[in-house]
Amino acid sequence: MAADQHGDDSATIPPDIEVNLAIHRPHSARVYDYFLGGKTNFPADREVAGHVLAVYPQAPAAARANRGFMQRATQALAKAGIDQFLDIGTGIPTSPNLHEVAQGIDPRARIVYADNDPIVLTHAQALLRSTPEGRTAYVQADVRDPAAALAAVRETGVLDFTRPIALSLVALLHFTADDAHDIAEAFKAALPTPGSALVVSHFTPDYAPQDAARITQVYRDAGSPVRARTRADFARFFDGWNLLDPGIASTPRWRPEPDTPQIADADASCLAGVAIRP
């Protein structure tokens, strides 16, 4: 279940993969796409988004803050010399994508994307436009099955698991309910090399408890349960690894760009952190 590209724009979806978009059911990736102003969402997704906006009109700003964190974290790691990235829960491509950011700093960077929403597969071509020096791949996989996801990633041959890899779990683990820490540990264990990195952002009730409770109820009613986690619970994702400055912060406060307008922590309602394996 992999599409792979090395240095041209000819990537296509493998013909043996059957795509069932299930557009009659809302999907968190497509709701997120709506908040980012994308066009790859459907009535079921927009209905959920409308319910979220009714209780939390800051949702689009929060989505943009989260996307900005991903880009800044990727830049920081690429500048530090990491040239391999594994992005789980990729979502629908919204430029600049992770590989565009990483390869903008190091054209040799290699990136593997993974997501369980079949519609992301239909957009895989946008995720596979690598620089000639680098390489990208996409696999259809579910974060809730780390062993299968990692097997699919290894099968692409794009990443060298004997060298540092940056694992991106951005705006994802709050959709995995009670086993999120076990999932994170399973992926961390697959990156044994010192110098590997972990990038995580996560919905939190710390800044706006009432808003968080309302958002949680909306997603639960839509059949897509979400769990907000406190700072202490979020910090557990980084157990055994060393957090980079500024440590755990809200998404807009993690190494913000100078002179860039910032939103309030309560409007983002999302924690962020980047850590390195010692």
Description:
The protein has helices at residues 28-35, 43-55, 59-79, 98-105, 118-122, 124-127, 146-156, 180-189, 209-221, 231-235, 265-268, and strands at 2-5, 84-88, 110-115, 135-140, 166-170, 197-203, 242-243, 249-250, 270-276. By secondary structure, the chain is an alpha/beta fold. Strands 1, 2, 3, 4, 5, 6, 7, 8 and 9 form a nine-stranded mixed sheet that branches. The longest helix has 21 residues, at 59-79. 47% of the residues are buried.
Helix-strand blueprint:
Blueprint: E1 2-5, H1 28-35, H2 43-55, H3 59-79, E2 84-88, H4 98-105, E3 110-115, H5 118-122, H6 124-127, E4 135-140, H7 146-156, E5 166-170, H8 180-189, E6 197-203, H9 209-221, H10 231-235, E7 242-243, E8 249-250, H11 265-268, E9 270-276
Parallel strand pairs: 2-3, 2-5, 3-4, 5-6
Antiparallel strand pairs: 1-4, 6-9, 7-9, 8-9
Helix pairs in contact: 1-2, 2-9, 3-4
Helix content: 25-40%
Strand content: 15-25%
Shape: globular
Order of helices and strands: EHHHEHEHHEHEHEHHEEHE
CA-to-CA gap between the ends? 33 Å
Mean pLDDT: 89
Helical run tally: 11
Computed Rg: 17 Å
Say how many strands there are: 9
Spans where pLDDT lies below 50 across 5 or more residues: 8-20
Structural class: alpha/beta
Main beta-sheet strand count, sense and barrel state: 9 strands, mixed
Produce a short descriptive summary.
The chain is 37% helix and 16% strand. It is of the alpha/beta class and 278 residues long.
